[in-house]
Design brief:
Shape: globular
CATH architecture of the largest domain: 3-Layer(aba) Sandwich
Low-confidence stretches: 5-10, 76-105, 118-128, 383-390
Number of strands: 12
Number of helices: 16
Strand content: 15-25%
Largest sheet: 8 strands, mixed
CATH class of the largest domain: Alpha Beta
Strand order of the largest sheet: 7-6-8-5-9-10-11-12
Distance between the termini: 55 Å
Radius of gyration: 23 Å
Oligomer: single chain
CATH superfamily of the largest domain: P-loop containing nucleotide triphosphate hydrolases
Helix content: 40-55%
Mean pLDDT: 78
Number of domains: 3
């Protein structure tokens, strides 16, 4: 195992190299620059500090990559070309994998199917042509706007009223339209018992710590934490240390928790639940029902692929999720993919988190964060100054 050297010429086929990077994007960039486009990633592992250090410093990724031999690289290129030529002939019935359960809301399911349809070779070309027929949509499509969101905008009742307006005015109408639809959704108020649930690695415990810090320092309340195992081991070392630092009491037995009030809310921390094991989610639902917890927050990593995000929502429906918390928001290259998910999932957006530690930004102003990250920066240079007057 070797560290990556400065010159690509020194890389030898068949050798493995270890990288320590801050993000997946950095790993991709370094591997391409130093190892070439055909290098193969063998493993990715998160590494970070122990105990409290885990929450006050960002974790890093340890990536093991291998340089393939010239023969393997050539075979890979040939295989990719063959797959590309044959792709239009294959059956696409498996496109909706992970969203087959009837538990997900109908709107979210339709959004998922629509996105999959738009990415098929034949229909995708038609969709691009449709967007190109309008200057505003064409520009948004070229800058990476989510295709499902663009299709939704075309279906708005007032689309014909602003579709031919100058860019700045059209973007203003889109901003107002998104804001109105966000505000018109049914909003569930968080109760004084709040459970945070999510799959492993989404930043659930870090989000909990941000909630606790917000309660203590901003709301001036005295929150409590109940560590729940629900049949799955749930170690508490890092969370226990953080609770001691901010003066929050952590319980491991529900019977020991004193009366919960608005001034002393209870946060419940569950272990990470596998998306492939529905039994864990149904067992967690039973636990939440027994504890009379109404606010059930699904925590998702916003940087994840759209398919994974929909699968999270689909699976979380088995335990009656009510709210949505989005983490790693600062790592999202295209936040527009979140709009259909937010508007159609029937989950009330609760917060957005930046960074991988408790010192990162935390806000409950989800709408403002989404609007500020919806339009690429280059559009501001094209006369988007009127947005500031909203």
């Amino acid at each position: 195992m070797q560290a990556i050297s400065e010159k690509t010429d020194e890389m030898k086929a068949g050798k493995r190299y270890k990288l320590i990077v801050r993000s997946a994007e950095e790993a991709v960039r370094i591997i391409r620059e130093k190892l070439g486009d055909h290098a193969k990633v063998l493993s990715v592992r998160q590494v970070g500090g122990e105990g409290l250090k885990r929450f006050i410093s960002s974790p890093k990724l340890e990536v093991i990559a291998e340089v393939p031999s010239p023969e393997i690289a050539e075979q890979k290129i040939s295989g990719e070309k063959l797959a590309s030529e044959d792709s239009t002939e294959h059956d696409t019935s498996g496109d909706n994998e992970g969203v087959k359960s009837s538990g997900i809301t109908q709107d979210a399911t339709e959004a998922y199917k629509e996105e999959k349809t738009n990415t098929k070779p034949d229909s995708g070309q038609n969709e691009i042509s449709s967007f190109d027929q309008n200057e505003t949509l064409s520009l948004l499509h070229k800058t990476g706007f989510d295709q499902t969101l663009l299709s939704d905008i075309q279906s708005w009742s007032n689309w014909n009223e602003f579709k031919d307006l100058p860019l700045a005015d059209a973007l203003k109408h889109i901003t107002v339209g998104l804001s109105d639809r966000y505000r018109s959704a049914t909003e569930l108020k968080a109760q004084n018992k709040i459970a945070l649930i999510g799959s492993p690695g989404v930043g659930k415990t870090t989000t909990l710590c941000k909630f606790l810090a917000h309660e203590v320092f901003m709301n001036k309340t005295c929150p409590m934490v109940l560590k729940v195992e629900s049949g799955v081991p749930n170690p508490d070392d890092a969370l226990r240390i953080f609770c001691e630092v901010v003066g929050v009491t952590l319980f491991r037995q529900a019977e020991s928790v004193p009366q919960v009030t608005n001034d002393s809310p209870l946060y419940l921390d569950f272990p990470g639940l596998s998306l492939t094991n529905l039994e864990d989610w149904t067992t967690t639902k039973s636990t939440l029902d027994d504890l009379e917890v109404e606010t059930r927050v699904l925590v998702v990593n916003g940087a994840y692929d759209k398919d994974i995000l929909y699968k999270n929502i689909n699976t979380a429906n088995h335990l009656g999720a009510t709210h949505l918390a989005i983490t790693h928001f600062d790592e999202i290259s295209n936040s527009t993919k979140l709009w259909p998910l937010i508007l159609r999932s029937n989950l009330t957006p609760l917060c957005i988190c930046n960074g991988q530690n408790v010192t990162g930004d935390f806000t409950t102003g989800v709408l403002n964060q989404m609007i500020s990250r919806t339009f690429p920066e280059e559009l501001y240079a094209k006369g988007f100054s009127s947005y500031q007057n909203l």
